[in-house]
Specification:
The complex is a heterodimer of chains A (about 350) and B (about 230).
Chain A (H helix, E strand, L loop, with lengths): L3 E10 L2 E11 L4 E5 L6 H8 L7 E6 L2 E2 L4 H8 L2 E4 L10 H11 L4 H14 L15 H13 L5 E5 L7 H18 L2 E6 L2 H7 L2 E6 L2 E6 L1 H6 L4 H6 L4 E11 L2 E6 L2 E6 L7 E6 L5 E3 L9 E13 L2 E7 L3 E7 H6 L7 E6 L5 E4 L3
Parallel strand pairs in A: 3-8, 3-9, 6-7, 7-8
Antiparallel strand pairs in A: 1-2, 1-4, 4-5, 9-10, 11-12, 11-14, 12-13, 14-20, 15-19, 16-17, 16-19, 17-18
Helix pairs in contact in A: 3-4, 3-5, 4-5
Chain B lengths: L1 H15 L3 H34 L5 H10 L5 H12 L14 H25 L3 H9 L4 H11 L1 H17 L2 H7 L9 H11 L2 H26 L2
Helix pairs in contact in B: 1-11, 2-5, 2-8, 3-5, 4-5, 4-9, 5-8, 5-9, 6-7, 8-11, 10-11
The chains are: A alpha+beta (about 350), B mainly alpha (about 230).
Chain lengths: ~350, ~230
């Protein structure tokens, strides 16, 4: 039995749909990331799952119990969950009291409260802050209090809404370290919303991509990033080479796809005549100065059209009859002495190409 | 002019020597205003929370009416309480007309709108995310409400002090329903108005100084709180 399950969950604000029939199952102990652009409905979904809002329609089951509307059951269920909101607010009291609140509301004894608060403050490395006024803290410290406050009640499921948005890089890695710890050591079920795809990859076991109020694809991080099911998703997960093509030949799982300006070989099951998109991640393309170095099936000669440095990487746009965007390290860009107008060979494996059906 | 200076000197002497009559009147004034203030606060905290935390038709209108009542004339409240408590009135049998209780009732009525209105705006000044965060951390509705009130504590205290200031300085109501009975319902303001008309400037001035001093203390307290 799934710990959390939603069936045809819908929410609307002012008559327009924010969430459209979300069917989601979260198993106990898993880490699930919702990724998607801002405004996709990630926060709304988390708020519904944390039982802060009542859905327009649909059902939410928590641990097998329908908790969609009943007030008593929702409070009981909510006391087994925790939610760290995107812009956490702290209460006007000490850090210690902020963290202790959840336990006091559950009528724990003061001895139990002291033990748990102290150990949780230790976990987020904020033990020295216990007597500080919480409203005088910095953004990263406030996030620390919010996480401690959420963890101290030992929730069965932890919801995180953009846990590292608006934080500086040092605070981000600190927060991720704490989250990694509770994911590994405490086996807490985590549902997190993030627009940072790499964070989803680092922390989550399963990812759902949400666009315009719908979850369009659910899968392992690897599936999501290498095999998006639609052009829209491909664009969102950072597949920057998207070419229109038609399958022109097929032989034992290997297809030839005609694109504007060349033919690309790919591993795919599509049949001759199918219209497809050829998806290729920039990091799967290698550049060389001569043709014979590469063992890859796809090698194209072209000229460098554009070079953009995004430390520590360099983005190379080559014109091979069709545009190809690749990423190389700054070091290899220097070794190859890449410059605009220089002829290069761009190559990639047939297995690196992801092919999806084109409906137009 | 010399008369004025002599009056002032005498008044200060009366205060410094802790004149029993002055102390008694000032003490009674404070006790009555403080009681009214406590009663009004006891009414306004739950009522204000109820109004703030619930959505209902006419909420805005209600808030506007409450705010309009901030400046209701004391004599109007006096008349209202008088009609109710006088021997022929609906509560005449209680026999509390011309007692300190009548004044307390009147003052409570007078300052309830002020404390209520300011409590509601104090609560709306608290970020909505506060009560929502509390709920997400497992608070029930009562616990979340209590937390919100706690977050608004300085603004609410300001409301209470404002109410106290209005209660201690009003005169019309105390005169009408208290009757200014010596040693029983005489307060600072009613004493000043009577003694001045009798020509006893020293006593009036002494009481006036105490009242101004109280006003000063209240204002300093308010300023301190608003800086929080």
């Amino acid at each position: 039995m799934a710990l959390l399950e939603t069936i045809k969950l819908r929410q609307e604000y002012d008559g327009h749909d924010v969430l459209k029939e979300i069917n989601l199952r979260i198993e106990r102990g898993e880490v699930f990331a919702l990724i998607g652009p801002t405004g996709a409905g990630k926060t709304t979904l988390l708020r519904l799952l944390d039982l802060l809002e009542i859905p327009a329609s649909g059902t939410i089951y928590f641990d097998g119990v329908d908790v969609t509307t009943s007030r008593g059951e929702r409070l009981e269920a909510r006391r087994r969950m925790s939610f760290v909101q995107q812009r956490p607010v702290v209460f006007k009291m000490s850090v210690y009291d902020n963290v202790a609140c959840g336990l006091r509301w559950r009528h724990e004894s003061s001895k139990v409260i002291r033990g748990k608060v102290e150990s949780t403050l230790g976990l987020v490395r904020m033990a020295d802050y216990r007597n500080r006024n919480a409203w005088t803290l910095s953004g990263g410290e406030t996030q620390g209090v919010a996480i401690a406050r959420a963890l101290v009640t030992e929730p069965e499921v932890l919801f995180l809404d953009e846990p590292t948005a608006n934080l500086d890089p040092v605070s981000i890695s600190k927060v991720e370290e704490v989250l990694g710890h509770i994911i590994r050591e405490q086996r807490t079920t985590v549902v997190m919303a993030t627009h940072d795809m790499s964070q989803g990859q680092r922390l989550a076991g399963r990812i759902g991509v949400m666009i315009n109020g719908e979850i369009l694809q659910v899968g392992s991080p690897n599936e999501i990033f290498s095999s998006p099911v639609s052009r829209e998703l491909a664009e969102f997960v950072g597949v920057e080479n998207i070419l229109d093509g038609v399958v022109v030949a097929m032989d034992d799982g290997l297809v030839n796809i005609a694109v504007d300006g060349g033919t690309i070989q790919a591993v795919s099951e599509y049949a001759v005549g199918d219209k497809v998109y050829v998806l290729l991640r920039p990091e799967d393309i290698t550049f060389a100065l001569s043709k014979d170095i590469s063992s890859a099936r796809n090698v194209f000669e072209g000229k460098i059209a554009r070079i953009t440095t995004v430390e520590p990487l360099v983005r190379i746009e080559a014109d091979c009859g069709f545009p190809l965007l690749g990423i190389v390290t700054k070091m290899s860009a220097q070794q190859l002495d890449l410059a605009i107008g220089k002829p290069v060979y761009a190559s990639f494996k047939a297995t690196a190409v992801h092919v999806i059906k084109r409906w137009d | 002019m010399t008369e004025l200076w002599q009056g002032l000197l005498k008044a200060i002497q009366l205060i410094v020597s802790l004149d029993p009559e002055i102390m008694e009147i000032a003490g009674r004034s404070l006790a009555i205003a403080a009681t009214s203030c406590c009663l009004a606060t006891l009414i306004c905290l739950p009522l204000g929370s109820l109004i703030h935390f619930n959505r209902f038709r006419g909420k805005r209108l209600l808030t506007n009416v409450v705010q309009a009542l901030y400046s209701v004339p004391t004599v109007a409240i006096g008349l209202f309480v008088f009609v109710f408590l006088s021997r022929a009135g609906p509560l005449g049998e209680l026999g509390i007309m011309f007692t300190p209780i009548a004044i307390v009732l009147g003052q409570t009525l007078l300052i309830t709108p002020i404390i209520l209105g300011l409590t509601i705006s104090a609560l709306s000044g608290v970020d909505k995310a506060i009560s929502e965060t509390a709920i997400s951390l497992g608070a029930n509705r009562f616990q979340a409400t209590t937390l919100t009130i706690r977050e608004a504590r300085y603004a609410i205290l300001t409301a209470v002090i404002m109410g106290f200031g209005r209660a201690i300085s009003e005169v019309g109501l105390s005169l009408m329903v208290g009757g200014n009975i010596k040693g029983f319902t005489r307060t600072i303001t009613t004493a000043i108005s009577l003694e001045t008309s009798k020509g006893d400037i020293e006593l009036s001035m002494a009481l006036g100084i105490i009242l101004v001093f109280l006003a000063l203390v209240i204002n300093i307290a308010l300023n301190r709180l608003q800086q929080r």
